[in-house]
Design goal:
Elements lengths: L1 E8 L8 E7 L3 E6 L6 H9 L6 E6 L2 E2 L10 E5 L10 H6 L8 H14 L15 H15 L3 E5 L7 H18 L2 E5 L3 H7 L2 E6 L2 E4 L1
Parallel strand pairs: 3-8, 3-9, 6-7, 7-8
Antiparallel strand pairs: 1-2, 1-4, 4-5, 9-10
Helix pairs in contact: 3-4, 4-5
The structure holds adenosine-5'-diphosphate and magnesium ion.
């Protein structure tokens, strides 16, 4: 279980700090919604370790995550605007999810398995710039699969996709979350996405998370 309790933070000049408390279970999607500017990305940046809270706790199965720098946290972050390298092939982009020391043979096998899991077989050698929006999100998910961190943070990951692609990718996220036992936190303003895949729901209002 991921437990966030009274995690407190204020941006420079912010008078009333955010105070976030949240529970996320393994194999489940926990949705966070809220108006633009409500603090959703701030919450994810705190969980990922890009921002440092002034008070509160964050534990995964009892382990304190707050002392860990971002790269050592058991956390992956997937954004709406994809961070693929356009000039690299799909498989090379996915390969970046593995530690640099991974052997060529092991990397090839793992990349192939991840591409299969996300339905991208056959596009391995294509440059990322030639992939559709949905294919890019699949490639980014494959990279996340190889990182295989138990907490997955998604910041509006489907927003740039058309409706049909969005539904497919969001179902893929649910399947992977269940199979891998990830604690997935999905920031979305799409009520239909949340209704379709989330087990727990929160709204950020007035600087705090409210369970709904
Ligand atoms: N680096 C920053 N410095 C000061 N204020 C910021 C910074 N980043 C975000 N904010 C402010 O914090 C609030 C919440 O931002 P954000 O978490 O990005 O909201 P959301 O993702 O819900 O749209 C906004 O009012 C935004 O302007
Ligand atoms: Mg945001």
């Amino acid at each position: 279980m991921l437990r966030v309790d009274q995690l407190t933070f204020a941006h420079p000049g912010q008078v009333k700090p955010y105070v976030f408390s949240l529970l996320a279970a393994p194999g489940e999607i926990t949705a966070v919604s809220g108006a633009s500017g409500a603090g959703k990305s701030t919450l994810l940046d705190l969980l990922a370790g890009f921002l440092t809270p002034t008070a509160g706790t964050m534990t995964l199965d009892g382990r304190d995550l707050l002392p860990l720098p971002p790269e050592e946290r058991p956390v992956s972050l997937l954004l709406q605007a994809q961070s693929l390298f356009d000039h690299l092939r799909t498989d090379s982009n996915v390969r970046l999810g593995l530690p640099a020391r991974t052997s060529r043979h092991e990397a090839d096998q793992k990349v192939r398995a991840a591409l299969e899991d996300v339905g991208l077989v056959g596009l391995d050698h294509q440059r990322a710039s030639t992939l559709s929006g949905g294919q890019k999100q699949r490639a980014a998910l494959a990279r996340t699969l190889l990182r295989n961190r138990p907490v997955l943070l998604l910041d509006e990951p489907f927003s740039a996709l058309d409706d049909a692609t969005r539904a497919t990718i969001r179902d893929l996220v649910l399947t992977l979350t269940r199979d891998r036992g990830w604690h997935t936190i999905l920031v979305s303003h799409h009520a239909d996405d949340i209704a379709a895949i989330a087990s727990r729901r929160y709204v950020i209002a007035d600087g705090t998370l409210i369970a709904t």
